[in-house]
Design a protein that fits this description.
α1 crosses α3 (58-72) and α2 packs antiparallel against α3 (58-72). Helix content is 68%, strand content 0%. It is mostly helical. It is globular. It has helices spanning 10-24, 33-52, 58-72. It has one domain (10-72). The protein contains 3 helices and no strands.
Length: 73
């Protein structure tokens, strides 16, 4: 069975996620171990969502997950 190639890597998703939260949303973020763990998992979720749905736009998926994350803080 052929393996799906991710559209972006977890590292790229994490980078975009951090940029969106800190720069675009102007949110002060303290990266302790728990926060970094949660954001890394969020980036992985974004990668998985994009792999499962070809029609999803990467930055929209990441922004949506980032908004959920910020709302939960």
């Amino acid at each position: 069975m052929a393996q799906k190639k991710d559209r972006i890597t977890r590292e790229e998703a994490l980078s975009f996620l951090l940029t969106y939260i800190v720069v675009e949303q102007n949110h002060h973020l303290v990266l302790d171990q728990l926060a970094l763990f949660n954001l890394t998992n969020l980036a992985l979720r974004a990668v998985e969502e994009m792999a499962d749905s070809e029609g999803i736009i990467p930055h929209e998926a990441i922004e949506s997950l980032a908004k959920e994350y910020l709302d939960a803080l």
